[in-house]
Amino acid sequence: MRIAITGSQGQIVRSLIERGTMSDAEIVPLGRPCLDLGNPATVLPAILSVAPDIIINAAAFTGVDLAESEETTAYQINAVGAGAVALAANQLGVPVIQLSTDYVFDGGLDRAYREDDAPGPINAYGRSKLAGEQAVAAAAPRHVILRTSWVYSPFGKNFVKTMLGLGETRHELSIVADQIGRPTSALDIADGVLSICNRLKAGADAEDLYGIFHMAGTGATNWAEFAEAIFTEAASLGRHPVIVTRTTSDQYKTPARRPKNSRLDTEKLAKIYGVTLPPWQSSLSAIIMRLIESS
Ligand SMILES: NC(=O)c1ccc[n+]([C@@H]2O[C@H](COP(=O)([O-])OP(=O)(O)OC[C@H]3O[C@@H](n4cnc5c(N)ncnc54)[C@H](OP(=O)(O)O)[C@@H]3O)[C@@H](O)[C@H]2O)c1
Questions:
Q1: What is the C-alpha to C-alpha distance for residues 274 and 22, in angstroms, rounded to an integer?
Q2: What DSSP line would sit under 66-105, residue for residue?
Q3: Cβ–Cβ under 8 Å, residues 122 and 106
Q4: What is the pLDDT of residue 295?
Q5: Alpha helix segments (H runs only) across 97-149
Q6: How far is the CA of 171 from the centre of ligand 1 (A)?
Q7: What separation in angstroms does the CA of 7 have from each of 1, 15, 58, 160?
Q8: Per-residue pLDDT tens for 124-171?
Q9: Is 84 in the pocket of ligand 1 (CB under 6 A)?
Q10: pTM here?
Q11: Among the options 75, 125, 152, 210, which is catalytic?
């Protein structure tokens, strides 16, 4: 099975490349300048050159705060670009998997969000990603929109790497404790996505395989607790301890507002695809060990 994936250096792209080498899937990354989501004319030729069985759109404008001042660019990449990828998939007659986000929700619910809960993004990034979901659904009936959350990995930029970097020079950090969500390893996402690809290939016409699905690490936490877990794990590997104090979103202002609750309910993915990601703590432990050993 040949899988084309947009982007080349992103967390999920690199995780899929790594996990792909352990499977019989051939992963073909399509990054800029060959495929530029900001220039939709590049999308179809790049994808045609690969002749894939499945296309994954994992590239995106992911700067949540930057999107507040660059909403037009975020929309062009996350909505128009995503739509062009789905259109190409439809023209080739192959399924498309679109990565999306917990930030399509406003965070006002007091339970985990299900796929059919009404979205209501409270920042520009979330609006652009929701528009991307809609563009993909309109362009390709055979789509899997996969919302995930709080992604970390050994690659690129993410909260875990930021905390480990800060922990090298700081002994105390103040982190927000009033946003809850489900941390998710990009390597686990890659495993889950490969399972989905296998099922899509085997049962390509089964209608229940398509639509919106939530995929996230098992278990929920807040950013302060997540940071504590990172520093506890790092200390067990010889790093000096770091004290985490709790703050609130009101005290720690960022350009983009974040939902207070962005827990995703992942039951549908478990039921239809038989995919449940591991507890975030065990995946975190393996990734921290890898990061510290390679530093
Ligand atoms: N990170 C999170 O916490 C999180 C949470 C929920 C959902 N998601 C979603 O998961 C997906 C992957 O996220 P990630 O964390 O792996 O992202 P990431 O590490 O920030 O990587 C983004 C990727 O997009 C590519 N890209 C950006 N602009 C592009 C353009 N104009 N044309 C082509 N490629 C472009 C980048 O290309 P280069 O390789 O050239 O830099 C990179 O490969 C995204 O859809 C994101 O919205 C992420």
A1: 20
A2: HHHH-HHHHHIIIIIIHHHHHHHHHHHT--EEEEEEGGGS
A3: yes
A4: 84
A5: 124-139
A6: 31
A7: 19, 12, 7, 21
A8: 999 999 999 999 999 999 999 999 999 999 999 999 999 999 999 999
A9: no
A10: 0.97
A11: 125
Strand partners, 57: 98
Which tokens in the block code for residue 194? 């490969």
Q: Probe ligand 1: pick from 36, 127, 151, max atoms within 8 Å of CB?
A: 151
Question: Cis before residue 141, ω within 30 degrees of 0?
Answer: no
Decide: 101 in ligand 1 pocket, CB within 6 A: yes
> Quick one: DSSP state of residue 256?
S
Q: Please say if 125 is a catalytic residue.
A: yes
User: Per residue in 239-284, pLDDT tens?
Assistant: 999 999 999 999 999 999 999 999 999 999 999 999 999 999 999 9
Question: In angstroms, what CA-CA distances link 164 with 48, 136, 185, 281?
Answer: 41, 36, 16, 16
The finding on whether 62 has its CB within 6 A of some atom of ligand 1 is yes
Q: How many CB atoms lie within 10 A of CB 228?
A: 20
Beta 96-101 vs 143-148: how paired, if at all?
parallel
- 32 within ligand 1 shell (Cβ under 6 A): yes
Q: Which of 51, 54, 57 is nearest to 31 (CA)?
A: 57
Question: What is the mean predicted confidence (pLDDT) over 15-23?
Answer: 94
